[in-house]
Amino acid sequence: MAFAALIDHDVAFARTWFGGVVADGRLSDAEVTARAWDSLQTVVTANGGDFVRAFLNHQRTHPCTKTDCHDMNGLIVIPNHEFRAQNAVNAMEKRTGLRRGRRRLFLDNVSDYNLYAKYHADGTVEMKRFPMCQYREPAEADMPPWYRALRVVGVSG
Questions:
Q1: What are the tens digits of pLDDT across the range 80-90?
Q2: Which domain holds residue 116?
Q3: pTM of the prediction?
Q4: I need a surface site. Which of 26, 45, 147, 150 has the fewest CB within 10 A?
Q5: How many domains does the chain have?
Q6: Both ends of the chain: CA-CA distance in Å?
């Protein structure tokens, strides 16, 4: 699946880097989350904590079935201020992009694997994964080793 972004209204400037569309500023985080799921888009925001809760709540209130998966398409969290966000994106690109160990990841990976990517001002990116639908193909056991090594969002330890 090709990467498509739904930009949170508060970071509309991020459209310059990620493309996609900017969400209506009148929508709640839960409504933006539902819209992203409906349209197979990755949410880009500075409001990571609230969107993590909205993602996990979406998955909890819309449980997956064999015929209806409710996995999201990833979350990208950038610094709140445009100047800091621009520095984070530039620094990350200088560090040769998104990485998991030695493996280079792409925005499509964030979407395809429902990842959480938090950009930091120094160019590092914190990577985690959201819980996976039990009916998803391929199954978690068949996912690449780098994916299985990621911490799961919302699970301590």
A1: 888 888 888 88
A2: 5-148
A3: 0.89
A4: 26
A5: 1
A6: 31
